[in-house]
Amino acid sequence: MVCVGYLMATISHDNDDDARALAIDPERSVIVQAPAGSGKTTLLVNRYLKLLGRVEEPEHVLAITFTRKAAAEMRQRVIEQLGSRTAAAKPARVRASERGWQLLDNPQRLRIQTIDSFALGILQQQPFSTRFGHNYRFAEDARWLYREAADRLLEKTNDKDPLSADISRFVALVGNDFDLARNLIADMLGRRDQWLDPVSNVAREIITKDPGQFIHLIESAIKSIADRTTNMLTASIPQSLFDEIIELCAFSAYNLEQPFSHLSDFRDWRFFSRIATTKNRSFRQRITVREGFPAKARSEKARFTDAMRSLANLGLTKTIANLQHIPVEKTPVEEREKLITFSIVLTLGAVELIEVFRLHQLVDFSEITISAENALSRDETPTDLALMLDYRISHILVDEFQDTSLAQYKLLTSLVQSWQPGDGNTFFAVGDPMQSIYRFRDADVDLYQTTFSEGLPSIPLDAVKLTSNFRSAASLVEWSNNIFGTLFSAPNDALTGAVTFNPAIAARKEPGRIHAFAADDPEKQAQSVADRVDEIRSNHPNDTIAILVRSRNVLPSIIDALQESKLRWRGIDLEPLANVPVVRDLYAITMALMDERHRLAWLSIFRSPLVGIRLRDLEVVARHQSVDDMLADTEPSLDARARLDRVAQAREIATLGHSIRSRVERFWLAMGGADAYADGAPASFDSADRYLEALESQPTNRILADQLLGQTQRLFASTSIDPVDVEIMTIHRAKGLEFNHIIIPGLDRGAQSNIKPMLLWRPEAHSLLMATRDDSKTNSLYNWLRYEEAEKDSQELKRLLYVAATRAKDSLSLYGCQTKDSNPPRGSFLALLQPLISLQPIDRTPPRSTQAKHASRPPLKRLKSSYTWREPFAPPLAPSSFQTLPSINVSTPIADRQEVALGNVVHDELRLLAGSTPATPSNLDPWRERLIHLGLYKTEVDWVMKHAHQQIRSVLADDTGLWILNSNHVDSRTEWMLTTYQDPQFTNVAIDRSFIDRSGDRWLIDYKTAVPDVSIVVFIENQVARYANQLRRYARIVESLDQRTIRKALYLTAIPQLVEISDNGD
User: Residues 152-180: pLDDT tens digits?
Assistant: First the structure.
């Protein structure tokens, strides 16, 4: 039992400096295990800087993260180091200066990106080698696409399709429940990167009347489970203990007249498991004659008991017990027929999904990774693209490697498959298996474990473990080592997801505090949490505090208690956007404007704060079926009539919008959306903006209501309170963060599920395990897969608790509800901790109020019936004069002065060319004298004139360039100058070229004259990253003047190439 209270720890003087030095050695390929608080990001940045100091171009170093936030943080850290005078950044600064990289002015040359954006970039380099070209966008949430594909497939049950019989059999297998069939297909399509190849291969074999491949696939996967388990046991058991077990098993087998041969095959191991363990997966407490040990064999019994105790100390109890439950290799005939049908239907579903992608011009992440991997590797041989990337990318760094999915792992291995030891290329991965908590995103911690022990298929890796914890106080580190050293006592096990513990050494000498309390009920727990926050805030006013929860349902009473104590809190990603009143009203407006027959949506609007008619008036207008009849009804009260008149006016204003977002936003503003929620501003405004952005991101004009609603349920509302006393967030959201004080309530909350899915599956080696629902208690493959899932959930629960506890720097406070003699719920943190810590009862006065309160938002108010909305901004104005081109300053760095001067020359020449018919170049010689007069050196002027001549000639030789310059376009504008009001001041913008094309679309084109110093693909990526948002801003300004479709593009004159910019960027 670990004592909980005020703990002190003896600080070890051991450190991991040698390990850190090896990890950042730019000549080595390394995988690092970096526990919580070990300075992982600093290590990653230092290695990145060292590599920058050695490469020919900064693009030769690629850093991959799994979130945009992590990529942005790493990029910022690198930029800060480059701008400082630290020793760590000196080689990179020197190299950048020698090579003229100008990284502080050109940070886009730092290749630090998410793995999905990297995969998308691979496809964009060879779009025609995939199923899609340039015009496809990435669907952040593709679930609606999966459902549409499933619907299209199930509709074929009524067709004369030759495979309709298979689809009908599939529907019958799920009880003729079309919803269940649809959801099953949609769920599987979302994870098809893990099953598509083996299942589609099986389906092809079946369709050609040869199911032998299918039988081999399943049975080889089952055999792989048995082999992996026995190999792991053989490697984990000391030889002397191994020999002892063989001798005792032989003794038992002789007495039971059972075959046994030195644990040489799986049958021997299963025999050992049967005599040593129970059906509850524990070692036997008593050994009897039934296990082959007669009563007189006291010595052998004692030896066998000692052997089991030794195995338990090695953490091998469950692994040995599992040998009894691994399914038999032969697949029953009935199950085989079911899986044949499932394989065919899932393959057909994948085909339908491709058609859905083409229809909507969207792809999901799985499609990107599958296509990217195929673009890099065919038949395990590098493609031309892979070899080209091999030339361009010399060093790869991967952050949070423990969160890698199988598809992402395959992509990374394809990228380095042509690398050889000693070729100068290096691979670096850093992560922590103890912090792998994203199974729901298909993260597979075994990929990290395997890579750590075996390296990559083509590259050996030095495996490094860090031990120093720079974050937490000494007593917190000691507590963590004791608790999690016990919880993570089993060896690494891919089948159950178990990971071994890597103890830390505290670098801080200060003591910390650990509290663990038990309350009788949630209200008392909540009050104690609020008191703890109040105590910390009083004693440490500048410290950071966070309440971390496993699930949001524990929070209502805690938020009540915080508000009652007048403590300011901020929730991070806690409340779904769909629950916020302003978003519910915007959703109703969307539904109503998309379909004016949507009676319920109009009635919801009438009752909202925007309109606010009373119930008796609502009953009157509700008699009508159409909104026109509702608005024309004369029976409602005068007050209601005035309010409904405003609705009619807002409908007219909404028609001016050119997109669904614009129409919804105009209606909402015209109805008083900016004032109806003023008590909740600015959070309400931020939530409204998030909703409108989600609406704008919908891929087609055919907005699907359930898709939009689902998206708002997955986005979260903002709570814009600052400053705050305490932050509140989920544990997943807190990963990567740190706070002085961490509070974890709800230890008693469990999360057990008894749902039995229709289909269970997972990849296994190069095969696939798949089984349909089995309600028996047999050792079926389905029951084995259910057990695996439960065990992996149990192991991840331990890691989730580790992540939560290790966010703390100075104190950790644990709270749970527990009555005397009660057992904690299964699947709860308390069930893990109860054997290891004592919870102190909360000694506190009863709740201050006998009636529970619930956290409430500011009350909504009805706007006055006479409310009138006035547009708060000025439309763009054409100014009398406007300086469009940047000025040249002698103090500007030479490279920058050249670029600015080149831009001035080319922009001016293109302005003249756009006004002449036909476009003919003018004499550029006068620019030479002008540039010298502006202070440029002769060498600089020569460079500018050379590139200006080249770019002008290239533009005039380019059909697209001539089309842009054509002065016969409708409403043709050159250097279109606008002034718009952006609070608190007027802002000038100049659009290089604008016109209306033959299809009626308005083009906004910005000339960019930068000269490529990297590959064309990277150059285009950099230009888009740098200027896309600027063009989007221009488009928003022009939209208020022109209701037609706005198209935006960069024209890169040095290539030359027109690059169109999408409406919403990544």
Answer: 999 887 767 777 888 888 989 888 888 88
